[in-house]
Amino acid sequence: MKKRFLFIIGVALLSSYSCQKDKLYPASATQVVADDQYLPFSTSARVVSQVLGLYSNMRSGQFYGGRLQVYNDVKAENWLNNTSNSVTAYQTWTQTVNSTSSEVLNLWSQAYFTINNCNLFLEGMAAKGSSVVGATLAANYIAEAKFVRAASYYALLNMYCPPFAKDNGASPGVPLRLTGNSVFASYDLAPSTVAQVFAQVVSDLNDAEAGLPLTYGDATNNTTRAHRNTAIAFKTRVFLAMQQYSSVITEANKIVSATAPFTATTGVANTMQTAVANVYKAPYTTTESILSMPFTTTEPVGSQNALADYFSGLGSSEFYLNPAGVLADATWKSTDARRALITVKNSKSYTLKYPGTSPYLDWAPVIRYPEVLLSLAEARVRSTNTIDAQALALLNAVRGRSDASTVYTAASFATPAAFANAIVQERNIEFLAEGLRWNDEWRLQLTIPSKNASIPAVAATDPAYIWPMSGNEQLYNKLIGR
After folding, report:
1. How far apart are CA 380 and CA 337, in angstroms?
2. Domains with residue ranges and CATH for the chain
3. Cα distance between residue 177 and residue 166, in whole Å
4. pLDDT at res. 20
5. DSSP class of residue 362?
6. Residue 432, SS3?
7. What are the residues whose beta carbons fall under 8 Å from the beta carbon of 475, sequence distance 6 or more?
8. Phi then psi dihedrals of residue 345, to 5 deg
9. In this model, does residue 348 exceed pLDDT 70?
10. pLDDT class for 367, splitting at 50, 70, 90?
């Protein structure tokens, strides 16, 4: 009887275990299993949230939300360092970065994280999402993903790769990853050439132009999401970096009228504001701001990423304007409205473009309409080797918006080369603290001037001219090569 009783208890325990083992090994609420991998693409709401998530990756403070602009500005000559803080671009400023520097690691990681999410999104749309949202919205969303991917690869080219002009893009570039990584595997991949990466950027931007809407119908989305003119404007930046000036002209002519006042006549009516100061205040959605990264109290950029924290004399006040940099340009008159965007604190100069204090909600500019105008002007001069009349009008439009007392004529410049240099310097003034100065020096292979007695000039032939590849990539990708 006792044995029978024990047997019954044993059966009961086994039965109980069988019924309760799901509690011992519960299904993960967050794991995406193979049969469920396209669940994020199962409804229209989920698909659009994926799209907005791509912009969130791009908006990271480690990327286009702040740090990329910071690195582009402080790598060049216009800023002096206040803090010697190694985690806030000090090594970029001193030209002493190595493969394990925080800026080198973090920008690389965020760029490829964004690229991978774009790749996974494109694959999800092909497998399921397009059928859920329909052809029109699918084309729009796919185009947005390709734009974000193109902008991410361009950032990698700009910081980690030799200029295209060095050897027509034959130098090693970065790994060109075009498929999504979602499981543990070997992802060894050799770098493509600079030319191949540029070609992919152009291809993605061409596809983006074809699929993006002309407008979203409201100013906020027209400023924070890519529309057709955004892709075109970005192409002018890319082709200028490749010194393919005829292509810059072709693209710019799509969104720049032949004569002043210059404006885009199709799609979003992009044009310059009457007053430059309007661009840097709420609601940040002027037609001049082709693309900006937005921030809110619930989605702030973070203090060590904020442009204000670096350039405005607020918070940590990481950098102040170099008196020997662009500030010293005698042609930049004291009456120029852009001079009013500079303030002096404790005998040091800072920008007022980002006036917001913590939590730092000023939007981060990515591309503004005056850049397209000056890119077109430069391309016309360099392609024709003349003091081109339209280029004069474009330069005068940008300078005249802030300084009506200066009007350039053909007699203002001794040679076309002097005219081209004046256009580059106008970009230096107009986009101060917006992340374009190193971009311009890099594409033209200009020497980075010395910033002080302890930081020598860096020539385009110096290994320190560009960043090394991420140490983490070198550790885990056996084919990286450098």
Report:
1. 27
2. 48-323+331-353+366-451 (1.25.40.390)
3. 24
4. 52
5. P
6. coil
7. none
8. -130, 125
9. yes
10. very high
Q: What is the mean pLDDT of residues 152-162?
A: 98
Nearest Cα neighbor of 318 from 472, 93, 72, 21 is 93
In whole angstroms, give the CA distance from residue 260 to residue 335. Answer: 23
Q: How far is the C-alpha of 115 from the C-alpha of 149, rounded, in Å? A: 5
Q: Which two tokens stand for residue 327?
A: 């500030």
Neighbours of 393 (CB within 10 A): 17
Token pair, residue 247, equals: 């292509």
Question: What are the tens digits of pLDDT across the range 181-229?
Answer: 988 878 899 999 999 999 999 999 999 999 999 999 999 999 999 999 9
* Beta bridge partners of residue 368, listed in sequence order: 289
Sequence-ordered list of residues with C-beta below 8 angstroms from that of 25, at least 6 positions apart, any chain = none
User: Amino acid identity of 222?
Assistant: N
State the Cα angle at 89 between 84 and 91, rounded to 5°: 70
| Residues with Cβ within 8 Å of residue 76, at least 6 apart in sequence | 437, 438, 441, 448, 449
Query: What is the C-alpha to C-alpha distance for residues 129 and 232, in angstroms, rounded to an integer?
Result: 26
Question: At 311, phi and psi to the nearest 5?
Answer: -115, -15
Asked if the model's pLDDT at residue 32 lies above 70, the reply is no
- Alpha-carbon gap, residue 355 to 313, rounded angstroms: 9
How much is the CA Rg of the chain, to the nearest whole Å?
26
**Alpha-helical segments (H) within 331-388:** 369-384
Residue type, 331: T
**Rounded distance between C-alpha atoms, residue 386 and residue 73, angstroms:** 30
DSSP run (H or E) holding 349: strand 348-351
Concatenating the DSSP letter of every residue in 277-331 gives GGGGSTT---TTEEEEE---SSS---TTT-HHHHHSS-TT--EEE-TTTGGG-TT
CB 226 within 8 A of CB 212: yes
Using CA atoms, how far apart are residues 351 and 317, in angstroms rounded to an integer? 11
- Give the closest residue to 304 by CA, choosing from 110, 83, 472, 104: 83
Tell me the pLDDT of the chain averaged across its residues.
93
And the tokens for 197? Answer: 């990466």
